[in-house]
Amino acid sequence: MVTAAAPAPRSNRPVQYPSEFLVNVIALIATILFVHALYVSWIIPNGDEIVATEQRRLKEDPDYVPERSFFLVINAVEQEVEIIHFIWALLILGYKAVLIRRERKLLERELIHVPEGIKVLPEDAKDYARQLEALPPEDKSSLVVRALQRTLDRFSATRSIRDSAETSKAVCDSEADRLDSGLAMIRYIAWAIPAIGFIGTVRHIGDALLQAHKAVTGDITGVTSGLGIAFNATFVALMLTLILMFFLHQLQQAQEQFVHDTDHWIDQHLIRHMQVR
After folding, report:
1. Rounded to whole angstroms, what are the CA distances from 151 to 100, 171, 174, 199, 205?
2. How far apart are CA 46 and CA 115, in angstroms?
């Protein structure tokens, strides 16, 4: 007699998402490769060609005023590094925004079913906790599920609604601190970009001063070219920092609003139904 093979047991291991450090490293490597390839194949050739043309015209006509070109503004090593940091920061911001959006969607679901008019007693806390345990593994690590689980456990242990509400708020406050500390890398990049710009300015001013002896003879092309590149480094850095700080504040506001909405959701869907005999 041939018996059918038993189905393979379903794995209860939680879904492993890539760590934030790994995501940051991958984003940095991808950004470096993309930006450097763009510079080598497009920006540097066009920038060098424009520089040669402008210098030739200055020599032919001392009264000629060079035009401000996009390729000239970003055609330097410092600008390339600034752009790499800027794109890297945007990718990290985008990743964090996706995580917040994913967890916010859980607030639209009925994670625990408490009918209107039904009171949750301390004896019922474990029954509601089982509803959370039945959720998919990838949802159990979310803020709202963790806060609900801790609140129900506290209510079952202490039989105090006040302690349960304080536990929920404590979990949300801890998550708010964690999310804020997770923005440290973005804040560092927002500081590093202007610093790189100032380094480029100092370096190119030094290069321009090395051409000062030529200016005495009437050839000022080397000095003007060096000074132009020097100030372009700071200009690009400040522009990128302004844009980056805008998106950083938008993400920070979204994180704070998410934590506040989660705390309010728990209060409306669980705590207000609690009752002690």
Report:
1. 22, 9, 14, 52, 61
2. 68
For 127, residues 6+ apart whose C-beta sits below 8 A from its C-beta are none
DSSP string, 143-177: HHHHHHHHHHHHHHHH--HHHHHHHHHHHHHHHHH
Q: What is the pTM of this model?
A: 0.83
Q: What is the dihedral of CA 242, 197, 69, 56, to 10 degrees?
A: 170
The owner of tokens 């590094």 is 81
Contact yes or no for 252/136 (Cβ under 8 A): no
All residues at 6 or more sequence positions from 38 whose CB lies less than 8 Å from its CB, including other chains: none
Contact predicate 98/253, CB 8 Å: no
Using DSSP, state whether 188 is helix, strand or coil. helix
**What single-letter amino acid sits at 202?**
V
- Cβ–Cβ < 8 Å for 97, 250: no
Contacts for 93 with CB less than 8 Å, ≥ 6 apart: 186, 247, 248, 251
Confidence band (pLDDT; 50, 70, 90) for 224?
Answer: low
Structure tokens at 173: 């406050």
Residue pair 180/255 in contact by the 8 Å Cβ criterion: yes
CA 160 to chain CA mean position, Å:
39
pLDDT tens-digit profile of 53-78?
876 776 777 666 667 778 888 888 88
Q: Which of 10, 13, 251, 269 is nearest to 145 (CA)?
A: 269
